[in-house]
Design goal:
176 residues; mainly alpha; single chain; elongated
Length: 176
């Protein structure tokens, strides 16, 4: 009977094997990233930093930190943003996870309709504000143009007065 139950159930993996595989993966990733960090540090030390030791230690620290971060992700995949652990039959393991497939269609349609309505209202408000800004800008431009014309007229009158005084001085021969 025990042989029949074993043949009916799929082959199970022992938890020790899973833990061993994850540990091996962490150690190999840690060694590779630490080695890469040391190699980059040595190259940077030799080429850029006149054989100073701190780039080597910086690279080693970076590699070990990256390896540690990878191990955290391997042992705790739920810490990865966007990762969701599913329960049996595709149901979420936690009631706090968002399951979009269970949302009701009428609620989604209502939300979409409200979004579209708000979008149209915002568009009309923005176009009204743009039109008001254009009117104000054209008014300001006309005022500036009038002021510029007034200043130009004053400058021309001032130039004529100066030319007249220069002519008077020339006739009187008061030049030095």
């Amino acid at each position: 009977m025990s042989t029949a139950s074993k043949s009916e159930t799929p082959a199970s993996i022992r938890s020790e094997d899973v833990l061993s595989a994850k540990t091996d993966l962490c150690l190999s990733n840690g060694i590779v990233t630490a080695g890469t960090g040391i190699a980059v540090g040595i190259v940077a030390s030799a080429i850029l930093f006149k054989r100073r030791p701190w780039p080597v230690f910086f690279g080693l620290g970076w590699g070990l930190g990256q390896g540690y971060s990878d191990c955290q992700r391997v042992f705790n995949p739920a810490a990865i943003p966007g990762y969701r652990i599913q329960g049996e039959e595709g149901k979420p393991a936690s009631p706090f996870t968002l399951n979009r497939s269970t949302s009701s269609a009428p609620a989604a349609a209502e939300a979409s309709r409200k979004f579209d309505q708000t979008k149209e209202e915002t568009k009309s408000k923005v176009s009204d504000l743009v039109q008001q800004a254009k009117v104000k800008a054209s008014q300001a431009a006309s005022v500036v143009e009038e002021k510029a014309t007034e200043v130009k007229d004053k400058v021309v009158k001032g130039e004529k007065k100066v030319e007249a005084k220069v002519d008077d001085l020339k006739d009187g021969k008061k030049w030095v």
